[in-house]
Specification:
Number of strands of chain B: 3
Pfam families (chain A): CBFD_NFYB_HMF (PF00808)
Radius of gyration of chain A: 28 Å
Largest sheet of chain A: 2 strands, antiparallel
Oligomer: heterodimer
Main location (chain A): nucleus
Structural class of chain A: mainly alpha
Helix content of chain B: 55-70%
Strand content of chain B: 5-15%
Largest sheet of chain B: none
Shape of chain B: elongated
Mean pLDDT of chain A: 66
Keywords (chain A): Activator, DNA-binding, Membrane, Nucleus, Transcription, Transcription regulation, Transmembrane, Transmembrane helix
Number of strands of chain A: 5
Family (chain A): Belongs to the NFYB/HAP3 subunit family.
GO molecular function, one term (chain A): DNA-binding transcription activator activity, RNA polymerase II-specific
Order of helices and strands of chain B: HHEHHEHEH
Chain lengths: 267, 118
């Protein structure tokens, strides 16, 4: 019975808005199961507006923590309330972004900056946020200045962070054996652990993917959007790549007791 | 050890920026809006901080205005009520519809049909 009512709820949600004048309503099973209603609510939204099929939310733990800090210590929060605020947050972000984006387009600019966001806030009735946000922005700018002073170590740090993944990454090397056939040799580079630069080099063939990965993992570390790399880091990586390629080739030769290396050079 | 030095510096910078929401995820949500090409790092930070303030604001308003004070619990209906009552949160009314029982809905549907017939 409950199962039937929930499925009919979903189909009727589309009708709800048209029949009920003024308010928007969502059907609730008589036994007041909050979670099921929320599910139907989500399905209803998916049916109504296909653009929301890929809604992305912020992690519920973070959201719940902020909520908890806002209400009195002894207060509790219902589970569906947490999920609901999660959705509200995504809606809020989209709301602000679209307003800021519109302003950007009006002024024929391509990049949304901090000013656009602040302007959007005051336009949409969140002007009480603007002053505290300006203070936070100041702190942020100071923190970023400090970070830029250590730009090189940051890229090394990037390599360090990814070190855990890179230990067992085999690096394939092309090799021409004495009989002239190319062999693909898997060289395990775990012996290079000590040098942070080398760790970074192990993944140099997938450099863009890694920067994107790091950006997704920890947005604070990346100054640039996907597709743009810090120029200093990029040239540094290129330099390291060239140097390490040479060293790599030499090491492979040593591994095969000079023979192959000398065979190639004698040809 | 250079490793720990770098990690410390990054941690300190992140702490100074003091965001408790993942900025990368915020950027994803921002990019999902139509006609958005590039977003400045400052803009992402501001949006993240604003979102934190928003959550605090919403939670506090809903708790104080709703039945939270009596039952000591913030519930979905508190949020829905606040969305409708407060002008700032009007944009949430679409995703925070109020809930009614199925039988009440069917009753009002019937009444509506009766009105149409008359």
């Amino acid at each position: 019975m409950d199962g039937d009512s929930t499925t009919t709820d979903t189909s009727q949600l589309g009708i709800t808005g048209e029949y009920m004048a003024g308010g928007h309503y969502v059907l609730q099973a008589p036994d007041d199961d909050g979670d099921d209603s929320l599910h139907d609510h989500e399905d209803g939204n998916g049916c109504k507006d296909n653009l929301r099929e890929q809604d992305i939310y912020l992690p519920i733990a973070n959201v719940a923590r902020i909520m908890k800090n806002a209400i009195p210590q002894t207060g509790k929060i219902a589970k569906d309330a947490k999920e609901c605020v999660q959705e509200c947050v995504s809606e809020f972000i989209s709301f602000i972004t679209s307003e800021a984006s519109e302003r950007c387009h009006q002024e024929k600019r391509k990049t949304i900056n901090g000013e656009d966001i602040l302007f959007a806030m005051s336009t949409l009735g969140f002007d009480m946020y603007v002053e505290p946000l300006k203070l936070y922005l100041q702190k942020f700018r100071e923190a970023m200045k400090g970070e830029k002073g250590i730009a090189v170590p940051v890229s090394e740090g990037l390599g360090e962070e990814l070190a855990d993944d890179s230990f067992s990454n085999p690096l394939s090397g092309g090799l021409i054996s004495p009989d002239g056939q190319q062999q693909n040799v898997m060289v395990y580079t775990t012996s290079y652990q000590q040098l942070p630069g080398v760790q970074q080099i192990q993944l140099v063939s997938h450099l863009e993917k890694i920067y994107l990965h790091a950006a997704l993992e920890d947005g604070e570390m990346m100054d640039y959007e996907q597709g743009e790399n810090h120029p200093l880091a990029e040239s540094l990586n290129l330099y390291i790549f060239l140097v390490m390629s040479v060293i790599h080739a030499v090491v492979i030769c040593y591994h095969y007791n000079f023979k192959v290396c000398w065979v190639i050079s004698s040809d | 050890m250079s490793e720990t030095n770098v990690e410390n510096k990054v941690e300190r910078a992140a702490h100074n920026k003091s965001v408790s929401l993942p900025m990368s995820r915020v950027r994803l949500i921002m990019k999902s809006s139509p006609d958005v090409s590039c977003i400045n790092q400052e803009a992402i930070f501001l949006t993240t901080k604003a979102t934190e303030l928003f959550v605090q604001h919403l939670a506090m308003s809903s708790y104080n205005n709703g039945s939270g004070k009596d039952t000591n619990t913030l519930s979905y209906s508190d949020l829905a009520d606040t969305a409708e009552d407060t002008e700032t949160f009007q944009f949430l009314t679409d995703i925070l519809p109020k809930k009614i029982l199925a039988r009440d809905y069917l009753k009002s549907l019937q009444e509506l049909e009766e009105d149409d017939d008359n």
